[in-house]
Design brief:
Blueprint (H helix, E strand, L loop, with lengths): L3 H11 L18 H22 L6 H16 L14 E6 L6 H10 L6 E5 L8 H15 L4 E4 L1 H6 L4 E2 L1 E6 L2 E7 L4 H9 L4 E5 L4 E2 L5 H11 L2 H14 L13 E5 L3 E2 L4 E2 L5 E3 L4 E2 L1 H4 L5 E5 L4 H14 L5 E5 L8 H11 L3 E3 L2 H6 L7 E5 L4 E5 L18
Parallel strand pairs: 1-2, 2-3, 6-7, 14-15, 15-16
Antiparallel strand pairs: 1-5, 4-8, 5-6, 9-18, 10-13, 11-12, 14-17, 17-18
Organism: Pseudomonas aeruginosa
Keywords: Signal
Protein name: Conjugal transfer protein
């Protein structure tokens, strides 16, 4: 069976939503399995992106800021690791093909080299007017028809590297060392015979050749990229980000109220070090604040209420020089997105973060505005009435500790 996973991965990396306008090529009808695989890969990728963007513990804001900055840098900088070739790092036999050779010839090659893991059929691109998923389906159908395990790769870089401008052609390489290049043949055995007889390097044309039907995918993507509006892409990406964020419609405080939250936990089973030392016995009480003091002041506000924004600014001005003041927002205007966040940050002259479910639950945040502080044993959640704002009468899902 064709290595469709590798083909799909290459396709996604090099041709995200690629669509080339030209005369369509007639393709055989095929089931939805390949389309489902591509869709699953795209969904998995989106879930990973969402996880990276949504995760992070806002309890220690300065640490989060550093982590977020590092994640952003890491996502931009290219990996320093050398990519592993799909056919392995040893001796490889590359057969350069095109649909101009005809479906029957491609099938015969899949049958002939079935089971040879160091052999790959390489295409330069996809037929004009054909969507990537349909091109994958066409290759997959041939693989199913022939029951072949030969890897089929979309590799325009290899065509450029070995200056392959016609098909068929064979290249035998060992790592980065090119042993032989022959045009006008798809016979690996013929090229290997030449190597055994002492003939290597560029063997020239050893048989008839055909033009390559597919355009170089890299050139196609360059043309497509040149037509894209970077600013439009940026705006769409930011819009998707904000629409994916969870917002909290918390009630507004109707009176001043301070609640005490005891974070003490009970050890459920003995905690024993590798050397046998008992760290804690089952039933022991542990207060995290006795291990790691909470020295900051955390503000949770609804930024749509001017009085709550004013309270945040006053708190930051009053306490910001002596302790870390972390501003957390229960929600932002999804349509305005970054503009709304920047508006709030500008109003208080400090960074602001979105409220996460774990922070809301950990500190039993019920209403806004709330100010969270702590002494050596307990957290204190102070709700402040600011005298204005729509009162949300939803019942709180958290009881007073």
């Amino acid at each position: 069976m064709v290595n469709c996973g590798r083909f799909v991965a290459c396709a996604i990396a090099m041709c995200l939503a690629a669509r080339v306008l030209a005369n369509p090529v007639e393709l055989p009808q095929f089931d939805d399995e390949v389309k489902k695989e591509l869709s699953a890969l795209q969904q998995s990728t989106q879930q990973q992106v969402d996880f990276v963007m949504n995760s992070g513990d806002l309890e220690w804001a300065r640490d989060l800021e550093k982590q977020a900055h590092k994640a952003a840098v890491d996502s931009i900088e290219p990996s320093k690791k050398e990519p592993v070739h799909p056919l392995g790092e040893g001796r490889r036999k590359l057969i350069f093909v095109s649909w101009s050779m005809g479906e029957h010839e491609i099938k015969e090659l899949l049958k002939e080299y079935n089971g040879e893991t160091d052999v790959g059929l390489l295409f330069r691109g996809i037929p004009d007017g054909v969507k990537m998923v349909d091109a994958l389906a066409k290759v997959q159908k041939l693989s199913l028809d022939t029951k072949s395990s030969v890897s089929v790769l979309l590799d325009p870089v290899a065509f450029q590297k070995h200056a392959i401008s016609v098909v068929p052609a064979v290249v035998i390489e060992d790592g980065d060392d090119v042993k032989a290049v022959a045009k006008g043949t798809s016979s690996v055995a013929r090229v290997e015979e030449s190597l055994k007889s002492g003939k290597g390097g560029d063997l020239g044309f050893v048989g008839p050749s055909l033009e390559i039907a597919e355009r170089d995918l890299i050139e196609v993507m360059k043309e497509k990229a040149a037509k894209l509006d970077p600013e439009e892409l940026k705006q769409k990406a930011m819009a998707r980000y904000w629409k994916g964020q969870k917002m909290f419609d918390l009630p507004h405080a109707e009176e001043d109220r301070t609640r005490r939250l005891d974070p003490t936990v009970t050890v459920q089973q003995d905690m024993i070090a590798p050397d046998g030392t008992v760290i804690h016995r089952a039933g022991d009480k542990i207060n995290p604040l006795s291990i790691r003091p909470f020295t900051q002041r955390m503000l949770v506000i609804d930024p749509s209420v001017p009085e709550q924004v004013s309270l945040a600014r006053e708190q930051i001005e009053t306490y910001g020089k002596s302790q870390t003041v972390t501003l957390i927002l229960s929600s932002v205007d999804v349509e305005a997105g970054w503009d709304d966040l920047q508006r709030i940050q500008g109003a208080v002259s400090a960074p602001a973060y979105l409220l996460k479910s774990d922070v809301k639950d950990r500190f039993a945040i019920e209403r806004t505005p709330s100010i969270v502080t702590a002494d050596g044993q307990s957290f204190f959640i102070k709700e402040v009435y600011v005298g204005r704002g729509h009162v949300n009468d939803q019942a709180s899902d958290t009881v007073d500790p």
